[in-house]
Design brief:
The complex is a heterodimer of chains A (101) and B (496). With 101 residues, chain A is mainly α. Chain A is 70% helix and 0% strand. Chain B has helices at residues 7-13, 17-20, 23-51, 65-97, 104-131, 135-144, 165-185, 192-218, 221-256, 263-276, 292-320, 326-329, 331-353, 356-362, 366-396, 403-436, 441-478. The longest helix of chain B has 38 residues, at 441-478. Classes of the chains: A mainly alpha (101), B mainly alpha (496).
Chain lengths: 101, 496
């Protein structure tokens, strides 16, 4: 990964994560207050649970991926994939149109 | 594979394309997908004709527009998109993992079962309401405590009758097993496409179960509305989007002969989608009795997803950098990048229309219909057309019969869609202002007529594009002599 790619990746991660986490944390606290006051919080339990269960599952997957070294050499898979594709298509000639060279 | 083996031995030990991919099933899925797309577009045209008072089947109960509107949306989601995605996955997953699907027999069983599910859904939607009041049905419903609705379920995009839902869920579970086995067998860091595919198999099953079972059996009223909102949007974001993006990450580098700009950034996009998408569906129900903190949460998560989308778009345009000529020369690449431009527009729209201020104007108007067509046809259907344009010559073993018909297909589809989108967006703004100024309902429907007439012709253009594609495919499959050879420079560039 080049330096500019690392910087763009880090910048985008920060730009996405910080405001989103801030928003979610604020709304989650609001939810907890409403739920405790008994003013209709139970009403929203189904969608909240739906979100939390889905996110918990993906958080576990993220940890599993990190533990198994999926993010150690992040740019390697893109090159391996293209190498494998050209190996699979070695010798294959399938032009889209008759006039294709 | 042994560590001491030479590179030549290792290459020889790797499976070949023929070992991995069953091309017949890919063709069958594509034929089924195009058949359902034809039905869906005819149904859409019928609905468009109804709005301009030109409906050709007035008074025919089985052809009533309300029922055929549901055929239009369901045939696109479960008939065209699902079949086309499944066919393409049978090509991409084994090649990405170097392992075949869990079972080829299971693949064929799923193919047949899925067509039966989609056809049964269509029959249920069209015939179900007609049979609804028959005494034998009322007696059976009473005896077995069944839900009364034999026809469509009361859930937007989840109208599959209740008696099909368990079978569809079993089908989705089998799809997940069939593809997760080769993914599980692959070793080392995974390419981003596999992350997207893996997530889609899990998400689609869960989304379908949530949307079709919870409102039918467990929750009611506004809570069911909240679940319905999640279902509609999750079907787009957690079924169609991950498969679409996964396939773009697969095909774009192959066609451009260049790796994706940043694999790290692509993973940021994937995990961003995973964490921010699931809560945003409630933005369909702003200003409803659903608690405001949930509505605000949906707005915030939607805006977060737009930032995620920006990473994906940046990544693909970064990949195109230095290969820009491919957009003009290579038809599949043109389909892909046209879809990406439409995707960026639709997501930009999303960030605007989820704000409460904007919702006041556009809620329930044709703006939303234009938005839906932009994403489902302008993005995902164009991508799948591009993939089919690239793969059919490989699958049939001969080039396209006519390049001109391929070009007509592209221009009529993309152009017709662009006109329809702009037309419906404008119609939505007019309708919003009519309603906001408290004018009688008739004023808004009369004022919408020019837009709805334009929409009919835009739809006809898109349908004509599909006819071009089908004629071209038929002639190519028959092995007819190719027509209109163009200079070599203008032809597409499939994998060499």
């Amino acid at each position: 990964m080049t330096r500019i790619q690392s910087r763009v990746t880090a910048l985008m991660a920060v730009v996405i994560l910080l405001p989103s986490l801030y928003g979610f944390a604020g709304k989650f606290l609001e939810f907890v207050h409403i739920y405790r006051s008994g003013g209709g919080g139970e009403f929203a339990v189904a969608p909240i649970l739906n979100y939390l269960l889905a996110s918990a599952g993906f958080f576990c997957m993220l940890l599993w991926a990190a533990w198994n070294g999926m993010f150690r050499d992040m740019e390697r898979p893109k090159n391996e994939f293209l190498d494998n594709e050209s190996r699979l298509d070695a010798g294959v000639r399938a032009p889209l149109f008759r006039s294709h060279p | 594979m042994t560590h001491g083996a030479s590179p030549t031995d290792r290459a020889a030990a790797l499976p070949t394309h023929d070992d991995l991919v069953d091309e017949r099933i890919v063709i069958c899925y594509y034929v089924a997908a195009l058949s359902f797309l034809t039905i869906s577009m005819i149904a859409g045209l019928l609905m468009a004709l109804q709005l301009v008072h030109w409906y050709p089947f007035k008074g025919v109960e089985l052809l009533s527009p309300g029922r055929w509107r549901m055929i239009h949306t369901n045939a696109i989601a479960y008939g065209f998109l699902a079949n086309a995605f499944l066919g393409t996955l049978h090509w991409a997953v084994p090649r990405l993992t170097f392992h075949t699907v869990a079972s080829r027999a299971l693949s064929w069983f799923i193919f047949v079962a899925w067509q039966a599910i989609v056809l049964a859904t269509a029959v249920g939607i069209v015939v179900g309401p007609t049979l609804q009041d028959r005494p034998w049905l009322l007696a059976a419903a009473k005896a077995w405590h069944l839900p009364m609705s034999l026809g469509a379920q009361g859930l937007e995009w989840g109208e599959t009758p209740f008696w099909i839902d368990p079978v569809a869920l079993v089908g989705l579970a089998l799809v997940a097993v069939n593809f997760m086995v080769p993914i599980g067998r692959s070793r080392g860091p995974m390419y981003v496409s596999l992350w997207y595919f893996m997530a889609a198999f899990v998400w689609t099953f869960l989304t379908y179960a949530m949307g079709n079972l919870l409102p039918e059996y467990r929750v009611a009223g506004t809570s069911a509305g909240a679940i319905g909102g999640l279902f509609i949007h999750d079907l787009v974001g957690l079924f169609v989007t991950p498969l679409g993006w996964g396939l773009m990450y697969y095909f774009v580098p192959i066609l451009l002969k260049k790796p994706i700009w940043s694999h790290g950034l692509s993973l940021v996009g994937f995990w961003g989608l995973a964490f921010f998408y699931p809560l945003q569906g409630i933005h369909h129900f702003l200003y409803t009795p659903i608690p405001m903190f949930l509505q605000y949460g949906a707005v915030i998560s939607t805006i977060a997803v737009e930032l995620v989308v920006a990473t994906v778009v940046i990544n693909f345009f970064g990949t195109l950098s230095g290969r820009g000529q491919a957009f003009f020369d290579n038809l599949p690449v043109r389909y892909f990048y046209t879809g990406m431009v439409f995707y960026f527009i639709t997501c930009f729209q999303c960030a605007l229309q989820v704000t409460l201020t904007f919702q006041k104007l556009i809620h329930f108007t044709d703006w939303v219909v234009g938005h839906a067509h932009l994403v489902m046809f302008g993005v995902f259907s164009l991508w799948l057309f591009g993939i089919m344009t690239y793969l059919f010559p490989r699958l049939l073993g001969r080039p396209w019969w006519s390049r001109s018909l391929c070009e007509y297909h592209y221009w009529l589809s993309a152009g017709g869609l662009a006109v329809m989108f702009l037309d419906l967006t404008l119609a939505g703004v007019f309708q919003g202002y009519y309603w906001a100024s408290l004018q009688p309902w008739d004023v808004s429907t009369n004022g919408s007529q020019p837009f709805w007439i334009t929409r009919v012709f835009a739809g006809l253009a898109m349908f004509a594009g599909l006819i071009c594609f089908l004629v071209n495919l038929w002639m190519t499959a028959r092995g007819a002599e190719a027509t209109d050879p163009l200079p070599a420079r203008a032809a597409g560039t499939p994998a060499a």
